[in-house]
Amino acid sequence: MAIKTDIAVIGASPAGLMAARHAALGGAKVMLFEKKEEIGKDPHPANSVFKGMMNITGEKVDPSYVVHDIKGMKIVSPGGHKIKVKTQGYALDKGAFDRFYEKKALAEGVEIKTGTEVVGLNRKDSGVVLKTAASGAGSGSGSDSEIPERVKAKVVIIADGILSKNAQMAGLHTMKHPDDIAWGTELTIRAPGIGEPDFAEYFVGSHAPGWKSTYLPRGGDEAAIGVYVRHYGRDVAPFLDSWIARFKDLKNISDDEFEIVERKSAGDPIVAIPDQTYTDNIMVAGGAAGQSGIGYAMHAGQIAGQVGAMAIAKGDYSARTLSKYRSDWRSSLYTEHAFGRIGLETLRKMEDAEIDELFEVFEDEDVSSLIKGNTVNQGLSVISLMLQKKPSSILKASAFFRNK
Questions:
Q1: Do both 155 and 283 map to the same domain?
Q2: Domain boundary pick from 235, 268, 301
Q3: Residue 192 belongs to what domain range?
Q4: What is the full DSSP assignment across 276-330?
Q5: Which residues, other chains included, contact 117 with Cβ-Cβ below 8 Å and sequence gap of 6+?
Q6: pLDDT tens, 80-106?
Q7: Mean per-residue pLDDT, 172-178
Q8: Does residue 11 share a domain with residue 110?
Q9: Residue 272 pLDDT > 90
Q10: End of a domain among 311, 335, 359?
């Protein structure tokens, strides 16, 4: 006999935790399954969030998971030209961040089963039957030690990351451009004073094709550096080794001062673009749906949870009812993802010299004070400013249409 619940959430990612919490807030009975034995243990390497991203969730940043305040970011071209964007950000203790939202979900009555992996998913009798199994030696906080072998849910929300087997089992092609996932490795490092600056730095160009190399100060002698690459497979070691050597040179760090504390690898679906994110009884949110960025994934989870609770209240779990998830997500976040893809594909196809020329338009200028409005208006503002300052530079944007 299967245990019954209104909504089952698979994965304690930021999207999953928000989906579970908001479904419970909407009056649904919710169970969340996480294959890790403890939420917050060995977290995803995502390690920062900016205030603008959190604003869309309505969530206040809590100091319990912030390790260092960031005043903004500097985007650096291959030749060292910098664009400055002042925007409040935070370097995170990602494990503490996940545990913070675990507690919020528990407070709303979500039943969390850690150390539990969903290994089967089948629609049956106007619901979905999940087959579960222990994924480790035991269960972590917030869990009953007993693991049900079968769970029947009226609605399932899949939020278990970009390599989601459950989305595949549901027959959903969740990303329009799955081959465009940016694979990367993030290192936590120590060096004297390396964590003291208050601006993150993102380096673009052929040294990290398709995305970026990163430097995130984390306070004191600790920072995070990483590299994310598209179209070169999952092994980014050559790019990372090159970035480490360049970073030491840029920051004048000797070999004996440089220490690697931790190494994490993962994928970022920044330009994958969500595709099929729902069907009868099922929705997919977060990385599993190609929804990149902590704040954006959290908001997608909120929407999925709210739509799931609405479906439970109506007693209708059909794709037609759940399509509200897709329409609400598109009205809120699609433009951010679409413009991001255009921008990053343009950069990927440009030569380093072209990127340098483009960046010279805003050399050492704080563009955050010049660009206003929503994403569409911001994009138009950038084009307008580029045309005013250097009309020839806008021609570089035609790189988007190159066959590369």
A1: yes
A2: 268
A3: 48-91+179-268
A4: --EETTEEE-GGGGT--SHHHHHHHHHHHHHHHHHHHHHT--SHHHHHHHHHHHI
A5: 33, 35, 132, 133, 134, 135
A6: 998 888 889 999 999 999 999 999 999
A7: 96
A8: yes
A9: yes
A10: 335
